[in-house]
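Progress report, Aim 2. The chain analyzed during this reporting quarter is listed below.
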Amino acid sequence: MNRILGAEHFVVYNYSISPAVDQILQRYQQDGLVTVLPWAVPTEEVHYYGQMAAVNDCGYRNRNISRFVVYVDTDELIIPRNHFTWMELLDTISPEEHDVSALMHPSDPSRKSLKTTGSFNFRSSFFKISDTTNWTEIPSQFSFSDEEKKNIEKFKFLTLSQFWRGEKIFPKDDRTKYITRPELVYAAGIHFVHSFVSNAAVVLVNNNLAIVHHYRSWSPEKLVMEMSILKFKNQLYARLMQQCQRFPSIFR
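Predicted structure tokens for the chain:
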């Protein structure tokens, strides 16, 4: 899904993984898609496996390499509600929040007076992981064939089967995740940038434009259906099946 949204390279910090995941990551490393870094940091966990060190290492190692760095966990996705890529989203954030067009059109002199944005922060909501999917709840415009349903359930494609989230969308700086310009970040944090190298702006992206889908097993009091990821359904399903076929000894 992140590839569809615009990610070009991934950095993975490996404290402990299964043989199957290791096999997949090795193949992706050969493809040049992933960098896997050994991460044997913790002694008594060191604040959840050295995650502060990991996020800052990722930012600094990608300076002058990546224009943007996206900070998410493996069970999270930043999903635009109306756009099809992160860059489309950033380029069209409403003016009352921040005009970010200077980032996308740096050669335009008329835009150079705009304040530089260092971080785009996204609010988060928990998506309930369920053992079953009630396909009758899916709107007709996103219909799935019997074969698609079978494969989605067989391979446990959470992104194409889990559409109920908690009504709560967490407030600013509480479980937010973010996209940064790495050269502007001095100290990154888990949920927001702690400090910048210059007076950069932080944009809290309106949750009507995008939210973080955080998939987890839990029992919320009230659920709402969130279908925004289904605009990627055909493209995402095809890519997932392609990867399953690439690793037949794992996905069978």
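The first strand starts at residue 10 and ends at 14. DSSP finds seven helices and 13 strands in the chain. These observations will guide the mutagenesis work planned for the next reporting period.
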